[in-house]
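Complex record, two chains
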Amino acid sequence: MKLFIGQILPYFTVTIFILGMIYRLGRWAGAQIVHNITLSPWPQTKGQAALRVGTEAFLFRNLFIYDKALWAGALLMHFALLNVLIGHLVGFAFFGTQFALIPGLGITTELSKAMSDCFGSIFGIVLFVTLLYLLYRRLAKEAAKLVTKPSDNLWLLYLLVLVGIGNIMRFVPNYHIDYVLVHDYVTALILFCPVVHMELLNNGFFLVHLLLVQILLIVFPFSKLMHVFGMFAERYIVNRVYHDPAPGLPNVDVSAARQAELGIPDGILQGRGYK
Amino acid sequence: MPEYKGMVQPARASITELRKIHIEPVPDELKPGKAVEYLDQLRKKFRSFVLAMESCTKCGLCAENCHTYLGTRDPNNIPTNRAELIRKIYKRYFTLEGRWFGKLVGAEDISLDVLEQWYSYFYQCSQCRRCAHVCPFGIDTCEVTFIGRQLLHWLGITPKLHSTTGAAMEKTGNHSALPKPGIVDTLEFMSEEIRDEFGVEVEFPVDKPGADIMYIPSSADFLLNPYTLMGAGMFFAYIGANWTIPSTVTEAGNFGFLFDQYSTQRGNVMRLLNAAQELGVKKIVWGECGHGWRAAKMYIPTLADRPLRWPITHIHDEVANLIRNKELKLDPLQNSKPVTLHDPCNYVRACGLNENMRVIMNACVTDFREMNPHGADNFCCGGGAAILFDDPEMYQRRIMFSKKKAEQVRATGVGEDGDGILCAPCSICKAQLYPMVEEHNLGVEVKGLIDLVGRSLVWK
């Protein structure tokens, strides 16, 4: 089991993930933007278009305007998720000392480690709670219930289990894992060195966490989770710069027409005597 | 066939009617297979469709923002569920998750029943794009129902209304099947009406060689909305334009956009360009028609088979431009009844006419009251995409679809004294709202925007 999940599977995971991403993105790119379907009012510059897409991507603009509760839940969930992902990367790379590396802030290594722990704990909990809210929403809110398929709920459950195990390793001292162990494990994997003997893989929670992450990555390119990229691809079609053709009618001189009293029966040009 | 297994459906075109628009219906037993084949072709072409199929997370935000769901509470009228009717087939045949985990992701085998579902629900969608406007990702259900309707059309499942309108356009150059003598007569009659009512001389030149401006009216303006065409005529006469109406294209609409974007829509586009070339005009100005304006403004550039030599603008753009330049003298007192503006979907979410309509409105009425919501946020009239079916069941649906609009109009209070004006500057909106303001007892009269302009022009 340790051999399979810890040593062999990761290479398959990375390969399938990369090939899968190329397949899915290539599939989107293969179809054309046939007609101009940009949504008006249009951005007038590329900057405005980027701002529009950016506010949707990072602040969830439309959710804020049309559904505050979903906005709060979704934004917090994604923000926490983003931080958890980044936290994993920098945590394992710098052992929690990452904040001390930022010049000019005067953060000590000890403080940085404490901050790292603190952020990790907060976002771990926020992520779990907001996922729970999103699941609750799907089960309780009429409109959400009507559009939900079993896989939508299963994904939320899956993430809850994955995050839940992560939180157990963070909060239950017996199962806590030191950054260094993971750092060494990942380094060994990258260098194609054997890892099966490693202490880390004896932690059952870690092994399950690692397995779930890998399944997630394998399925990711073929699943609804691709919406993170789909969003940008879709907005690239509907939020485009468009400039109206200039108004103005050829050979029209309104003041001359009015002076000539065009259309007025007693006028100079069309005086047909009708009153 | 007004109902199929509990689903309402518009009456269908007969084989004869389908042949008039060059479609040979696929036999029933072959339909499901052909549907998958056509779907495969279309998905490989339209990225907007692929992304609508593959990016939705089912957050459900679109539900309460679609007037068809608000009016009927039919779950299949939730935009994402409407798309799901085709997505379940798409998943089953074109995605790994659908092939391997069909039940979990809601994939389904193709069948005649599914096609009947498409026919029912894609023709309840008014393609108003409010879901795209609201969707956090911008997913446009319009792109899904366009493809769905196209596919059904190829199979030989097309509403009678759409196919006969398409055929009429091919035969006469307008949707109302008006021949040239009828057009000329009607326009002469309008000149007389204008002389009697407004005391001014306005001619409607037809096929005038050497005209600078080609005006494309909605054919409904000849019959149902005469004041819109009269308003346009008065406007052109007032500014002294050298303009004309081409007898070969007396139609601002393009139903091809709504059921057959390949053949019918393109045919209409080429017909327009031919007319512009024959008359040697310098500019094309479009009349009041929502879907038609979108089809013209946004689709002609990609549908024209020749380089486009004429700038095309909307009459609202031109009127607003002259108002901004202070060249038009308008007397708002001529329109002193309370007015509210229904924003045609295609104007505000696809063609950017939002501000110009308000420039005009503020210049020619005294008591303008905005609806809530308005502009790009406004709701559809319930008849968009020409779902103006008169079969009793579909008509009932239209009443439901306009429920939200009725609430909005009522909330403005314009109809409280029974003499309000509901300005709806689009032929489909007008055709939908004429009966609907009666059904909902709104106390308003439906008018176009150019109607109000014509009425308020100060000639002397």
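Note: Residues 15 and 317 of chain B are 42 Å apart (CA to CA).
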